[in-house]
Amino acid sequence: MSRSATGGGAYDVGVLVAGNWKMYKGPSETAAFLDAFDPPLGVDVVVCPPYVSLAVAVGRGVSVYAQNVHWSTEGAFTGEVSAEMLLELGVDGAIVGHSERRQHFGETDETVARRAEAALAAGLGVIACVGETGEERETGRTEAVLRRQLSVLPRHERLVIAYEPVWAIGTGRTATPQQAQDVHGFLRARLAALGAEGIAVLYGGSVKAANAGALFAMPDVDGGLVGGASLDATEFLAIAAA
Ligand code: PEP
Question: What is the dihedral of CA 135, 136, 138, 139, to 10 degrees?
């Protein structure tokens, strides 16, 4: 399936590969990376640099998403950035609900929903992350957790879901292609039940060049949200080419 991420428009057809750079790469490293990066044809590549590197990333041949976004246009919210500010820079979208935000910065389903709603209303694309912890999986609660996380999100043509099992983020442990497919099939069915068919579902969690092909070949996996491996241009290119 082929999807287009350009300009925050609808994802209507293809493969989407997004690189979450976390708190890595300042402006000069970002510029150098993107100047040497030639995304393969037929794949929509998104990079998500830290806030300070967004301006320099815009206009360098890939879509650019922030790693978070606030729900207010402006206000006394120290450390936050609004959708309108991102749009002014030429940024295409934002990640919301990443597990590192949920784990370390008190992000909740409610604040994730508010961030997603405001960003979509302002015209940005949104990649909303959902995923269970290792303990939730081991105690049979994966589907209940995902159902809850999904239920609060708005339905929107510019919304993309990233299934990121928390036990696989930055741990080197990847879901097997079949584990990913099982959850993606569940998410696809839930989205259909919520009247939101056609929403792309990405897999994230220790994706690398060596496992990307098998994961992306699964029928309900529409691409990937890649953390650590997206920091290396050769590795990220190999993942996008997979
Ligand atoms: C992420 O940060 O979204 C992620 C999936 O990280 P990693 O690929 O390093 O597990």
Answer: 110
Q: How far apart are CA 199 and CA 16, in angstroms?
A: 12
Q: Does some domain include residue 207? A: yes
CATH number at residue 30: 3.20.20.70
Pocket test for ligand 1, best of 16, 167, 225 (most atoms within 8 A of CB): 225
Distance, in Å, from the CA atom of 178 to the CA atom of 164, rounded to the nearest integer, reads 15
Overall pTM surpassing 0.90 (yes/no): yes
Q: Is residue 1 part of a domain?
A: no
SS3 201: strand
| Closest residue to atom 6 of ligand 1, CA basis | 227
Catalytic residues: 98, 164
Gap between the Cα atoms of 200 and 181, Å rounded: 13
Atom of ligand 1 nearest to the CA of 164: 5
Instruction: Indicate the number of domains in the chain.
Output: 1
Residue 25 falls inside a structural domain: yes
Domain range for 74: 16-241
Residue nearest to ligand 1 atom 4, measured at CA: 227
| Amino acid letter for position 19 | G
In a domain, 231, yes or no: yes
Query: What's the pLDDT tens digit per position in 101-133?
Result: 999 999 999 999 999 999 999 999 999 999 999
